[in-house]
Every structure is written in C-alpha cells, then in structure tokens.
Amino acid sequence: MTWKRKDLLSMQDLEAGEIRDVLDTAESMKEIATREIKKVPTLRGKTVVNLFYESSTRTRTSFEIAGKWLSADVINFSASGSSAEKGESLLDTAKNIEAMSPDVVVVRHKASGAPAMLARNLRCAVVNAGDGAHEHPTQALLDLLTIREKKGHLEGLNVTIVGDVAHSRVARSDIHGMKTMGITVTVAGPPTLIPAACQELGVKVSHRLEEAIAHADVIMMLRLQHERMTAGFIPSLREYSRVWGLSPDKLKHCRSDVLIMHPGPVNRGVELSPEVADGPYSVILDQVTNGVAVRMAVLYLLAGSKGA
Amino acid sequence: MSVAYREKAQVLDEGALDRALTRIAHEIVEQAGGVKDIALVGIKTRGVTLGQRIAAKIAAIEGGQKPAVGALDITLYRDDLGLKAEQPVVRGTEIPFPIKGRTVVLVDDVLFTGRTIRAALDALMDLGRPRVIRLAVLVDRGHRELPIRPDYIGKNLPTSRRETVAVLLREHDGTDRVVIQEPAEREEGEPQPKARRANMESPSERSEEGEPQPKARRANMDSPPERSEG
User: Strand order of the sheet with strand B5-12?
Assistant: First the structure.
C-alpha cells in the first residue's frame, strides 16, 4: 500500500501505484454490494460531510451510499437552503463545518481549485468531487475500474474521448489518469470544444468522429454542458448530434468489443442515441455501480488512516 | 518499524505440519459426524491455504466428498483502524456459498491475541447465520486478550510476547515449516548483526503472494492489537 495522502484533489497528482491501490481496494469493496446486509463497521464513528455547491445526483448519492455502507455518518450540505445563500464564504462555511469535527469533507464547487484551497485550510481529509472545469478524480477512478474490469488490464488500450472536452473536468481527470496507466488517449470533437493546448497533455486530437473511434477499445462520450456554454461553440444541438452524436450506424465502424462509456447525466439524442446508451456495448450503469465501490475505497483510504 | 528477526527454533517440519493438518481433518469430520453441511472458511492469506489443504484431506477421508472452502478478509472489521500510520490493504472476501445453517470451521495459521478471530466472527455473522462456528488453528501461541478458544489445534506453542511465530507454506514461501523467531539484538562487543531478513512486511499486513523472497507472516509482540497476531 503506497497511499499516504491526506486529500484526494486531482488525478494529475496521483502515481500509478496510488491509482492501483484505489482500484484494488475498490474491487474488494464490490463484494459488500452483493450482500443481503450491505454494511461493514469499518468507519464507525467517522463523519463524512458532503459539501455540494453545484447540483449532482450520482456523485453525491454515491458518496452517501459509500459512507453509509462503511458505517460512517454522512451529512449532506447543499448550497441552496444553507447560509451560503446568505453570503457566507466557502472558507467560512468550511471552517464552521470543521468545528464540528468531520473526518472527511467531500466538496463540489464551480470554482477550479476550491477543494485544494479547503485542503490547505482544513485539518480533515478533503475529496474533490468536481471543481469547475478542472478535475473530478473519483469519476476518473471509477472509469478506470470499469475499463480494467471489462478489459482485464489498462496498459496499451486505446481510449477515445468524444465531445465537449473544453468544459469537461471528467475529460481532464480521465486524461491524466489514463496517461499515467499507460493508455493511449485520443480526443475528438469540434475545434471550438477542443482546447488548443490539448496536445500538451499527451493526447492525440481528431476532428473526425469515424476516424477517432475506428480503433478505440473504449469510447467515452462526454455530456454537452449547456450550462457552461455562454455562446456560439456549436451551430445547433441538431447539427452537433448529427456530426458528433454516437448512433448505431456510426458504431458499425468500431471494434466488435468496444465499450461505450458516459459519465452521466446523458443528454439522450444529443451525444448518445438511446439505442446506443441502452445497447450491448454500453457500460454506463456499470460505471455507476463502480462509483460506489471507488468512493468506498477513497473514504476508507482517507478516513481510516491516522490523523484523519 | 524495521526490527530484524532471526530464527530461534523450528517447531514443525514438513512432515509434522502435514500430520497436524491430517489430525485436524479427522477431528473435524469426527465431531461433525460427516462432511455434510461443513464449510471451511480460511482467514486470508495463509488460513485460506490451510483451509484448502484440510478440505483435501477431508475429501480423502470421506471418499471424495470435499467441503466448500471460502476466503475471509477481516480488514474491514479490524479494531485498530485509524491507530496505524498506513491503512491495511483490503483484500476482499470470497465466500461463494450460503453459510446459513451450516457448520463453519474458521481456519487460521496462528492464534495469538484473539483479535483477528473476533473480527472474523463479526464478519461471518454479517454474511449469514451459521448453525455453529468452530475454530481450527495450526499454532496456538497463547497470550489471548479476548475470551476466545480454538476447537482444533495443530500445535500448542508456549512463546514469549517478544517472539514471533512464522508459518511458512509451500504455496507462499516455497517451504512447509513453522519457526519461532526473536528480535535480532546487538550483542556486546560485536558489530551490529546483519539482519537475516529485513522486516519485509509490516506485521499488521497479510503477506502477499508471488514475491520472490519467502515471507513469514509474523505474530509480533510490539503491537498486540494488530492483525497478524490473532
């Protein structure tokens, strides 16, 4: 076990050994989900606070279930209906929560770097559950777990990430994690949604979907993030869907053992046609199941060690 | 912690270890009156190997009827989580059969403080309600900290707390034997003795398989609540 960190802030920081630790631990945690009584006493007496300044279904629920299955007390805090609405700053809110002695704070915030700022100021462990367009490390870890589970290994695989890379913290975390694990990553999308400096992360860039997915072992479709698009990145949703959406006829050009992934929530009919989202290649729901296991692993590694 | 250990005495050789397991297998069958409803659950890692060997012996005794063997990881049930600098590795439990209503024989290599067995009992109960749980250990080295007592014992071994008992098995260590080890201390007028073997694993961790060096899982005296000492 090489895990020594107080916080989990980004995939960029993690070394291959650390990623392997989390994935191995998560794999062992999966057995708990198959039990009749889904609870182990591991984090009894520990408190996990979900501090969510942005909306979330999967991630927050998944952290909550993960904490509860490990017997931690999980408290949910969302910005609406809290004193954040009265103008309390993030740090003040966090300091107040810290005064109630939590062991782990899971934070999602629209500002990149918000979790890192909290990590520097709080004694407890901090988990980044998504910060702006920066990173979403637990999503990348659950993606890696799903790929490893289905393909048996990570090194040498080809993964193509399609769509709104510019606004995607998932893409950024995935790219860092996958590169670390020896995966070849290609990003594909309209030029307006692919950052100019993308190649610096060591990925290939393609502007033609058919070419980008032809040899892929895994296709990761990203959600078109309407809420972060202020203006004019794509001509229209319909055109985007026709050119960049994954439909059954485009899948004909793919490998027969390709995996289709999506971090959710899916814009059905935009980046994924319903036939593909629910089709045989789709492992979208496996990703959700693995999300709980990965978050159990992260909480175990962070909350259980000394000083947490 | 990097205390070096040196071998003090060999307690069981290959033949004696095998005979001890044969006797345990006979005792299990005799007490249960057959193989029916018996399930062996080994505590990871070496307890699982011993469980498989005992199951094979029971099959030989009972004309091929082999009891089910499961593997139990007690990490999530430890009582010392958060007391250690590093989190112990979670290895996963694999018990692919219902234990409800069965006679479950827990198998471990060394019984020491009893804390591992406490954790194993809790872990088992979370998986179902066995009719009865019994405990088989290859070595009982004493120094219990909990009211726990084995039903089948390969060897009673009086030890001092500062010693460790290493169970070496062919599958993990390339050899079958049980040895007592003691800390290698510096003697007067001598240069610091070379460690026979650095302490390759934290005493709290189950050793991993497939490593080149033979590793002994030790029951170490320095920190009684830790895993390997149960």
Answer: B5-12, B177-183, B164-168
| CA gap B117, A280 in Å, rounded | 45
Task: Say what the pLDDT of residue A135 is.
Answer: 97
**Position A131 pLDDT exceeds 60:** yes
- Nearest residue, CB atoms, B87 vs list A40, A70, A300: A300
Residue pair A156/A301 in contact (Cβ under 8 Å)? The answer is: no
**Of A271, A118, A133, the residue nearest A189 (C-alpha):** A271
A106: its two tokens: 């899971």
- A1 and chain B: CB distance < 8 Å anywhere? yes
pLDDT in tens, B210-225: 344 444 444 443 444 4
- The ipTM of this complex is 0.81
pLDDT at A228: 64
Short-list A140, A134, A132, CA closest to A228: A132
Q: How far apart are CA A271 and CA A208, in angstroms?
A: 15
- Please tell me the pTM assigned to this model: 0.86
Torsion over CA of B199, B204, B209 and B212, rounded to 10 degrees?
A: -10
Dihedral sign of CA atoms A261, A265, A266, A271 in order: negative
Alpha carbon distance B99, B48 (integer Å): 16
Residue B76 is nearest to which of A27, A42, A301, comparing CB atoms? Answer: A42
Handedness of CA A190, A191, A193, A198 (dihedral sign): positive
Mean per-residue pLDDT, A265-285:
93
Residue carrying the six token digits 């479709």? A221
| Strands (DSSP E) found in A175-269 | 184-188, 204-206, 218-221, 259-261
Cα of B80 to nearest chain A Cα, Å:
10
Encode burial over B30-52: b for 16+ CB neighbours within 10 A, e otherwise: eebeebebbbbbbbbbbbbbbbb
CA angle A269, A270, A271 (to 5 degrees): 110
